[in-house]
Structures are given as C-alpha cells and as structure tokens.
Amino acid sequence: MADNGTTLLTAARASFARGEWDSAHRDFARARSLGELPTEDLDRYSSTLWWVGEVRESVSLSEEVYHRYEDDGAPLAAAMKALNLGLLWFIRGDLVISSGWASRVRRLLKDLPDCVEHGYLLYLDASVDLDYGDLRPTRETAARLDDLGRRLRAPQLTSFSLVLSGLADIRDGATARGFAQLDEAMLPVLAGQLPPEWAGDIYCTVIHACHALADLPRMRAWTQATEQWCHQFRGEVVYSGICRIHRLQLQCVEGHWDQAEEAIERSGTELIGRNNWVAAEAFYQLGEIRRLRGDTAAARAAYDQSRRLGTDPQPGEALLLHAEGRSEDAWAALCAALAGRDRLAGAGLLGAGVEVALSLGRVQEAEHLCSELESTATDFGTPGFRAWAAHARALVLVTGQRYAEALPVVRRAAAEYRALGARHETARMHELLARAHRGLGASGAAAADLAQALALYSGLGARPDVRRLGGGQLPGGLTGREADVLALVADGASNRAVAEALFISQKTVGRHLANIFTKIGVGSRTAAAAWAHEHGLHRMPHAGGGTMGTPPDVTTGRRS
C-alpha cells in the first residue's frame, strides 16, 4: 500500500480506537480504495460499518474477515468474529442465522482449553435459546459463566453471568434481586471492559427488562444512562437510534404525541435491518398514538408493520377492534395472544382483556383476568403493574355498580398513573371517578371529574375520547388528525405552517389533504376551506401534546 494509504490507515485506526465512527469509516474506505487492507484493519472496518448503520456491507466484510482468520490458522480471532456476527444477526432478529454462527464458533473452540471466547459463546447461546418457561438452563449457564469469569479473571464474563441470573430472578418475581444483579452487570460495561457491541446489547437487555415490567422510572434512568454511554462515540450510531426509540416511548406516556409521532416513525424505519426488535416496538408505539387519536387506518398500518418485524401488536390491535364495535373479534385476539405468552409477557394484555370482557358481559372472565393481574402486580411489585391492577379492579367494581368500593381503588390507580406521568390513563381514572360519583348520587363531583377528564383528553388530542364525552362527531368521516389539518388550512395556513403547528412533515400534510379532499368530495384548498367553515371545523381547537393510553406493553421479542 502506498504512503498515502499508510497515512490513512494510521488515522483510521486512531479514530476507531476513539469511537469516532464517521471519520474511521471515511479513512478506512479511502485506504481500501488504494489497496487490500490487512485482515486486522478489515476487521476494524467491518465493525465501523455496523456502527454507522451500513449493516449489509458490514456483514459481507465480517464474513470475509472470518474466513481470512480461519484460513490463516487463527481460530480464536475467527471465533470472535463469528461471535460478533452471531450477535449482529441476533440483534437483527434472525435467530436461525445467529445460531448458525454460534455453531461455527463451537466447531472452532471444540478442542481448545477454556478461554474468554467460550464465555461469549455461552452467553450468545443462552440469549438465543432463552426459554422463560424453563429458567433452569439460564441459571446453569449463569453459574458456568461466573465460574469461568473468576478462573480467567474476565470481568466481561462475570457481567454476562449477572445479566442472565438477573433476568431469571426477575422472571421468578424476585424483582429487587434481579435488578440489583442487572445493575451490577453494568459495572464492567461502564468501566469499558466489554467490546462496545456487547456492552450495547447489555444496555438494551436492561432497558427491555424495565419495559417488560412497566417500571417507567427505572426505564427513564437506564435510557438516560445509555444515551450518556453513546455520547462517547462520535456521530450517529445504531444504539443512539435505539435510545431515541426508548426516549420517544417515554414521551408518549408523558403526553407528547405531536413531537413523538413523526419522530418515532422515522426512527423506527431507520432501525429496520439494524435492530428489528426495537423497530417493531417503534411501529407498535406509532399505532398506539394513532389509535388514541382516532386515525384507524394509519394505526392499523403501523400495527401491520410491527407484525411484519416480528411483534404481535397486542393489546393495541385488539383495542382498535373494540373501538370499531368488533368486541368479539377483539376478545378472540386477546385470548389467542394470552395463550402464547408467559405470565410476565401476558401482563400487558390483562387490563385490555378486562375491559373487553366487561363490555361483552363476560363478568366471570373479567374477574379472572383482573385477579391474575392483581396477583402479578403483587409478585413483581413494579409501579406500572400496580397501576394496571388497580385500574382493572376499578373497572370491575364500577361496572358491577359497587361504587362505594370503587372510589378508593380508582383514586389509588389515579395516583399511580400520575406518579408515572401517564396523562391519558389519568384522564381515564377521572372518567371512572365520574361514573362512581354519579352512581352514588354525587352529581356535582361527577360533573367536576368529567370536566377534568374531558380537559385532559382535549389537551392530549385524544379525539375519540373527546367525542365520546362531549357527544360530538366529526363531519365527513374525518379522523381527528385530518380535522386538525383542515382546521388550519381553513384558517389560511400553508402546508409548511400546518406541518410546523402539528409537528409533522409537509409530505404528511399533503397525504392528509389528499384523504380529506376524497372524503368531503372537493378538489381544491379553497373548496375544502369553504366546507370546513360550513361545518364549523375552523373553530375546532387544535390538538396539543399527549400521552400514551398505557405504559409501554410487552412485545414478543427479548430486545427493547
């Protein structure tokens, strides 16, 4: 390689060591254009490509690096490259290919004495084969990793051991002990003792555990910690995109629908092929925003994309059916989803099951699901589970006209939701309080509660809830978001102004206008504005920020 190439490689290696992926990518690419890279540099370049999001090229080069190491008689280097490929495919959601790379590692290490690479293989195998129905293999692997880590003085293996043991404890209901182990597992990560790809995977595993347990305070803390960890890397990296999704999920709970809707769609799209687990969660969350806003077709499209990426979009999809009056279909969908999930993964479905069962007069089924949710909340003890359980019990009591019993339960649920910052669910509790007070003859208190619920729904832009409580119906079959767009257009706003007011793109504004023109039978902005004035839409308040209807629900994948 010419002197210029040597200079570029020196710069690329230095950038790689500092985690400056964009500059490393640039210099490695230029050096490669001048001649063949040494295997170690091609290895670095393949990793750099993954960090900047060029996943397909990263996989291709990584496979070339693997074969070079194997041909050169370097089994440990080949094994480590194969392990990284196995992790990459696992993160992408392709467990079959991930298992295939793990098999190659097993062949390479079969006749070698115990080494750190054996520990990485144990952890990858355990991650791929994780069976929450039988945690014994997970605990056995955790014990083997702990022993191996001690003997080899390898803190990364101890970290892997703590991750697996912590996950097993959490699944067994020993939540405090499980999270304590996950917290301890982060110490080698924070000390920089793990390769960044594997460190990022542990971060994601910890956040997923918080997500699965609806422990929003802990999820906020770990999302912030992961974002700070990502700051050491210069430029946009895969894990930055994952953190963005988690932050947007929390913003949705807290009431920022306008800011989150377009950002979560864009970020989810960017993660397709990089981390399909999290991309699926992003599209599920997008479906939830749209469902609560009354944009049925767009919600269904988001749920469909979530399913294509590997996640069963429940309970949101069932609640969408329920809102359309297809409650029997919703009940069937929830029952099918519950049948395929373990106790923890099913917790996020039980509240929706109670609501749908009560609407169908299935009181015994609702009571059974409610009791199961209460038992789960008692065993796991997380804030989100406590809120869900109190909410479900309040629904059962109010529907059963046991109003005096219901009042303290509704208030407890409201307090839990307020502590979580879950504004939409807080509004639902005010609505339940209104029903209980009305049942007890306290009409003044009922009116005040109903007004509070309506104010919260209006502030969130939860159009179906506003129409249900206010008795209003949108004309022309418009969705809530279409009404927002038309109201602004009727007031003379340009597409750009509409986009800025609603925190969406001009392309999205154009799509909404095309749908509006079709629905109300007009062909121009002027005619649409006239129609809006005729139907009073120009006087409608525009949607503000908002929150998700429930804390983040559990997906079928492990990654979050």
Structure description:
The chain is mainly alpha-helical and 560 residues long. Helix content is 77%, strand content 0%. The chain has helices at 3-18, 21-34, 39-51, 55-71, 75-92, 95-109, 116-128, 136-152, 155-171, 175-190, 196-212, 216-230, 238-254, 257-271, 276-293, 296-308, 316-323, 327-339, 343-359, 363-380, 383-399, 403-420, 423-439, 443-460, 463-470, 480-490, 495-502, 506-520, 525-534. Helix 15 runs parallel beside helix 17 (316-323). The longest helix has 18 residues, at 75-92. It is globular and about 80 Å long. Mean pLDDT is 88; it is low at 539-560.
Q: Tags for this entry?
A:
29 helices; single chain; 560 residues; disordered C terminus; mainly alpha; globular
Summarize the structure.
The chain is 77% helix and 0% strand. The chain is mostly helical.
Average pLDDT number: 88
Please describe the biggest sheet, giving its number of strands, its sense, and whether it closes into a barrel. Answer: none
| Low-confidence regions | 539-560
Distance between the termini: 44 Å
What's the shape? globular
List the helices and strands and how they pair.
Blueprint: H1 3-18, H2 21-34, H3 39-51, H4 55-71, H5 75-92, H6 95-109, H7 116-128, H8 136-152, H9 155-171, H10 175-190, H11 196-212, H12 216-230, H13 238-254, H14 257-271, H15 276-293, H16 296-308, H17 316-323, H18 327-339, H19 343-359, H20 363-380, H21 383-399, H22 403-420, H23 423-439, H24 443-460, H25 463-470, H26 480-490, H27 495-502, H28 506-520, H29 525-534
Helix pairs in contact: 1-2, 2-3, 3-4, 4-5, 5-6, 5-7, 6-7, 7-8, 7-9, 8-9, 9-10, 9-11, 10-11, 11-12, 12-13, 13-14, 13-15, 14-15, 15-16, 15-17, 17-18, 18-19, 19-20, 19-21, 20-21, 21-22, 21-23, 22-23, 23-24, 24-25, 26-27, 26-28, 26-29, 27-28
